[in-house]
Structure formats: C-alpha cells, structure tokens
Design goal:
This protein has 513 residues and is α+β, with helices and mostly antiparallel strands. It has 3 domains: 1-20 and 244-278, no CATH class; 21-242 and 446-513, 2-methylcitrate dehydratase PrpD; 300-439, 2-methylcitrate dehydratase PrpD (60s Ribosomal Protein L30, Chain: A), CATH 3.30.1330.120. It is 45% helix and 8% strand. The protein contains 21 helices and 7 strands. It has helices at residues 21-30, 37-56, 61-71, 92-104, 124-133, 138-158, 169-184, 188-200, 216-236, 252-255, 258-264, 303-318, 334-340, 356-359, 363-373, 384-387, 390-396, 405-411, 454-465, 471-481, 489-492; strands spanning 2-6, 74-79, 274-278, 325-332, 399-403, 423-429, 434-439. β6 and β7 form a beta hairpin. α8 packs antiparallel against α9.
Length: 513
Amino acid sequence: MIDHAVHAYRSKDKLPREDQLAWKIASVASDNVAVNDDVVDMIINRIIDNASVAIASLNRGPIKSARAMATAHLRNGGATLFGAPADVAVCAEWAAWANGTAVRELDFHDTFLAADYSHPGDNIPPILAVAQQCGRGGIDLIRGIATGYEIQVNLVKGICLHEHKIDHIAHIGPSASAGVGALLGLPTETIYQAVQQGLHTTVTTRQSRKGEISSWKAFAPAYAGKLAIEAVDRCMRGEGAPSPIYEGEDSVISFILNGRTARDRGEDPFAPTYTVPLPAPGEPKRAILETYTKEHSAEYQSQALIDLAFRMGKVIVDRGGFDKVKSIVLHTSHHTHYVIGTGSGDPQKMDPNASRETLDHSIMYIFAVALQDGEWHHVRSYAPERAQRPDTVALWRKISTIEDPDWTRRYHSHDPKEKAFGARVVVTMEDGAEIVDELGIANAHPFGARPFGRKEYVNKFKTLTDDILDPKESERFLALVQRLPELSAAEVRALNPVAPAGYLEENPAKGIF
C-alpha cells in the first residue's frame, strides 16, 4: 500500500493530474490485477448478504416507491430488479436505485468503520446493474466489486466526513464510479473524470441521519450509485468534471472538510493534510476482507451491544428483574455516544413514536429491547407495539451513554485485533448493587466469538427469505452465485432472486414518471 498525502491547493499552483487523489483512485481502478481467491469468496458472500436483506424488504414502503420509479424506465437488455420477474429489465441507473434502496432499507448488510462510516456493500447494486446491461460476465463483475470496496474502504480510512456533517455517501460516488470503470475496463482518463463527477454530485449533509430520520436514509446510497453510473456514462462520451475535485481551491477539502474548519479558526486552509492509502501498481485489491457484516438488523455500533445485552439480560432477571434497575450507563466511543447515544442530543431517540429509522439509531432503545427479549428481529423488534410497551419505555429512559477515551482510542485503532465498537456497561440496581460487563466486537465479526463464513451467510439468506422465495428459486440463486467466477453474461443477468407471482406489492400513489 502507498500512503498518499492529500490537501487543498491554490489554483495558481497548478496541481498536476497525476498528483491528484482522483487520478490515483482511477489508476487503481484501471490496474487490471488478478483478484485473489479469498477475495472472490468474500465477494460471493456479500452478494448473498445483499440479496438476503433486499428480498426481506421487498414490500416495505421505500422499496415499493423505488421499484415503481424504476419500472417507469423499462429497457430491453437493461438490468433486473430484486424480486421482479427475470424478463423485467430497466435502465441500469434505475436498477441501481431500486436495488440499492432494497439493500439498504433494513440497515442489515456489511459495514466498515474507521475515520468515517460506510456500508461498502452499497457498491454492489450499481456495479451489478451495469454488468447486466453491458453484457459482462462473472470475472468482470468480480473485478468491479473488488475495486468498489477497495476505494471506499481506503477513503473511509483516510477522510472523515462525519466531523464536518457530510453524509458518508460522498465516498460512494467515487468508489462506485471507480468500480463501474474497472468492470468495463475503461482507461484511467475516463475513470478519473467519472470519479470527480461522482464525488461532486454526492456531497450531502448528515441531516439524513439526524433528528427525525426519514426513509431517505435507505435511498441515499442508491442515489449515489445511480449518480455514479450517470457520471461514468457522461465521461465515456468524452465529457469532463470539476477538477481537481478533492484538492481544488474552491472544492471539497478546501470549503467543506478540513480546509473550511482551518479557515474558521483563522488558520491556513491549504495546510491540513489527509492520508489516503491505496494499493501500489500491481498490488491485489483486498480491502473487502477488512469489512464485516451484521448478524442483527441495527446500526453497526449496536451489534456488539446487542450480543452483550443478551447475556446481561439474563443476569438482571436473576437479580430481581428489569423493574429493579435504577440506571444503565454505556461507557463507549465518541462515535457511539454522539451518533446513536445520548450525546446526540436528539429527543427522538427516546421517543416511543419514533420511526424505525430513528429507533435503529438509538442505542438506548436497542439495548433495552435486547435486554428484555434476548433476541433481535428485523421486524418484531421495531414494531410500534414493541416500542410503545410501557415497561420497555421505562427501562429505555434509564439508559444513557458517556464517552470513554479508551473506547474511542480502540474504535480508531489501526490494529484490527484491538479495534472495537462496543462498550463497558454498568447496570445499577435499586439496592445499589452493580452488574458490570463489556464486549468489544460482535460475535459475527471476523475476530468475534462466532465469525461469519459461507455457512452463516447462506443461513442468513434462508432465514430472511424462506417465507418469501420458492425453495427452488432460493436454491437456484445460491447455486448460481457460488459459481460467480465462471458465470456468463446471461447468468450474471440472473443474479437477482425472483419472488413468487403475486408477492410483490405496488405503491398505489402516482408520481411524475
């Protein structure tokens, strides 16, 4: 890996394109290096994972809306949609929109956390859609997905968007553009322009994850994937993009990220430097192996805490029950405290009438329900009647978070065996007795108690889809995806599972399309 220093430049300094981050990203994407077998194996796992959560969400509101918008853009030889009949094809960018929304809706697919947050599986829908429309086989698809993961993971390591209240989809615009470019074998120049356009159009604020969190949280990554496809298409036609997109005097670093905050402090906005690692020429793309999926349908920083709640709940019951709890304090990282904890200052995170999207970002709610139920379900655990149970509300409001510097340090550690996303939990009972326990990483994490492998991914798929898919369709998809490297273009077009006739519900509301 090569560490690249990235900072803003004045226009008069004329930064050569070969020294720009977008060009370096494009160079990685156009470097047609072989993909290692263990990376191919994990790509297969993540395609299965995406399909699991997408099929489980097919009749939820946002997915019905996204599918209706997509099917208004039918195209012969286009891309397919999760759940829809195999002969229904739409324009690739609209397939990315509908499929990306389905993947993201339940907040139940893979994650990578470092300087910023990410769900790298969001790269798969746009790359797969373009592969289907452009007639590419399994090897090309593998190359594209490996590239999308590589770019997003390394941007997340090097550039924090959250501290500037920019949503993490700003890393998907460039990564998905690079992944599509790699899939199609485009030249560095074309990918360079597309990466810049992909970033320029996907810089949005984190209000999508603050206050009253709406369904846009599910749509946002799909929006970035859709724009990435459009960026590549535009640049393939010879068009350019704002440049240099990262380092420009009036661009992202200078006026949105660290350069802006330096300017606010009266400091030099061109001095702050980011360090972004990228593979050297000829180096395999292996970043997907650093990512991890979810066993529970909830924000990733709650995964270990759900596992911890399962075992602590049993102890609380043995000590007299939940009505004997006086307080529960989660000593945790800065990110957990300020994003999904009481440090956020969001009253909605304590509101029994809050949306599913908001409850998913309330560790206080999640921990209370996991304590009481000893299980976590992607539907039951968020049901209004579950959130409004008086005994749950009472327990929920006894839970708070505080930042612990050591948990923050572990969260940002570069040592994967020390890196942690959990907490130390102190439960104080009414009689003054304390119950103390901690867990750093989720059971399903690669270093956890029960790491996910192919068996677990397949089991997750079956658990989420067995009451939806015909058994023959389930087995067809699982057999097909596990032959990914040898798939023909026609077989790649069959990678989205089809729901039984009559299963899909339509959104009756009419829009413009």
